[in-house]
C-alpha cells in the first residue's frame, strides 16, 4: 500500500514538474535507483566497498566514488556502477552545463553537485537496504538540506530547486517564503541566465 501511494505521489511530482519550466523533478535523476535496489550480491558488495573506501556514508568523497565506479563499470561491466555514474553525470550536466559555455557558472555547478551528491547517497541506501523507497527518502532529505544551505547563501538555482521540492512535498508555508524571494530577484541578470540554462 505504501509503495503504491509513494508511486502515486511521485507521478504527481512529475506531473507538477511539467507545468513549470523551472520545476525540479527529482525522478529525472533517480531512474537507476531500482537497479541499485535489485543488484546481485557481487555488484552490491563491490559498490558498497567503493563507498567505504571513499569516506563512508556520512562523509562521501564524490570524486573518489565516481572514479571507483567508473573503473569498475569499465573493467567489470558492472551495470550498477554504470547506472550510478550515469545518474551523477546527468545531475552535473543539468541546465545545459555541459553544452553551453554561458551556463558554466559556479552557482549552477554548486547546485548540480548537491543533486549529484544526494543521488550518490540515495544509491547507497537503495543498495545497502535493498530498498528503492529508502533511497528516495534519503534523496529528498539530502536535497532539502543541501539546497537550503546554498539558497541561504543566495544561490538562485538552489532557490528554485528547493522551492519546487518543498512545494511538491506539500510543505507550502516554507515553499511560499522561497517564492517571495524568487519574485524579488526576477529582474536580475542571474535570473535571466537561469531561464536560459534551466528553462
Automatic annotation (TrEMBL):
Keywords (alphabetical) are: Signal
Signal peptide stretch: 1-23
Q: Is Signal among this UniProt entry's keywords?
A: yes
Could you tell me what this protein is called? Sel1 repeat protein
